[in-house]
TrEMBL record:
Protein family per UniProt: Belongs to the alpha-carbonic anhydrase family.
Organism: Stylosanthes scabra
Protein name, UniProt field: Carbonic anhydrase
Group of enzyme by EC: lyase
Pfam families, per database record: Carb_anhydrase
Obligatory cofactor(s): Zn(2+)
The protein's Enzyme Commission number: 4.2.1.1
Signal sequence range: 1-25
């Protein structure tokens, strides 16, 4: 008889705890958010573009996110290089937006620089499970760091998570996550640099917001190195949102001929020299 491996056992625990969460928590009001993530429902992701005239891109857009990144199809771009970020502590709040939990910085918390353009950090929020996939693999969660330039263009850094050790940033937020309801919580100064991710190896493509109105032209940076979170952290994130938003990941969208760039320059082997 086959033995259950440790990773499989851990995932089984998470699934069980999430089922308990779904059965015990009060569902959020879908009408308040205007959409949900359950396929086949009247306000599910296939219907987003029909629910509001301003959300038409959710159905008709040709550069939508998230996507399944197929590593065999990516193209190397040596000009991407190091991911330039300059973050600093700033006053922030924790907000339950109904469909997710988000940390909003109320003052200047630093920036991301892409090709000489500064994108100021606005917020970070979580999706469970991950929205992006790598070679078809889904991860337990995904963090989005949303930035905006002075002319309103968006750039998002996506960090993927698997179940192993606790995440330091989430651990500091857990006391607040455990008590949040519909009222914002003042977090005091929050340092975005506590969100750990590799600045060197990542994928880059042009996509969209993954929630309505699904605005396109977003610069996506999907970090290659997967970070870790604990079972408790993931379960607490889900329970804080609850209801039909316990699973809040949009399905993968079609590539539609887009190029996915890889920042990692492969070293030539001796036979190639």
């Amino acid at each position: 008889m086959a033995l259950v491996t440790k990773p499989t056992f851990v995932y089984m625990i998470v699934v069980f705890m999430l089922l308990v969460s779904l059965c015990s928590s009060e569902p959020n009001t879908v009408e308040a958010v205007g959409y949900d993530y359950t396929q086949g429902r009247p306000k599910g992701p296939e219907q987003w573009g029909k629910l509001n005239p301003d959300w038409k891109l959710c159905s008709d857009g040709k550069s939508q996110s998230p996507i399944d990144i197929q590593t065999k199809s990516v193209q190397q771009d040596p000009q991407l290089g190091w991911l330039h970020t300059e973050y600093k502590p700033a006053p922030a709040i924790l907000q339950n937006r109904g469909h997710d939990l988000a940390v909003f910085w109320k003052e200047d918390a630093g920036k991301l620089n892409i090709n000489g353009t500064d994108y100021n950090l606005l917020n970070c929020h979580w999706h469970t499970p991950s929205e992006h996939k790598i070679d078809g693999k889904e991860y337990i969660a995904e963090l989005h760091m949303v930035h905006e330039s002075s002319n309103g263009e968006r750039a998002v850094i996506a960090v993927l998570y698997e179940l192993v050790n606790p995440d330091n940033f989430l651990e500091k937020l857990l006391p607040f996550i455990d008590i949040i309801n519909q009222d914002d919580i003042n977090l005091g100064n929050v340092d975005p640099s506590l969100i750990l991710f590799d600045h060197e190896k990542y994928y880059r493509y042009i996509g969209s917001l993954t929630t309505p109105p699904c605005t396109e032209g977003v610069i996506w940076t999907v970090i290659k190195k997967v970070q870790t979170a604990s079972v408790k952290q993931i379960v607490d994130l889900k329970q804080a949102v609850g209801g039909v938003y316990t699973l809040n990941a949009r399905p993968q969208q079609k590539i539609e001929g887009r190029t996915i760039w890889d920042s990692e320059v492969k070293k030539a082997s001796p036979k190639d020299l």
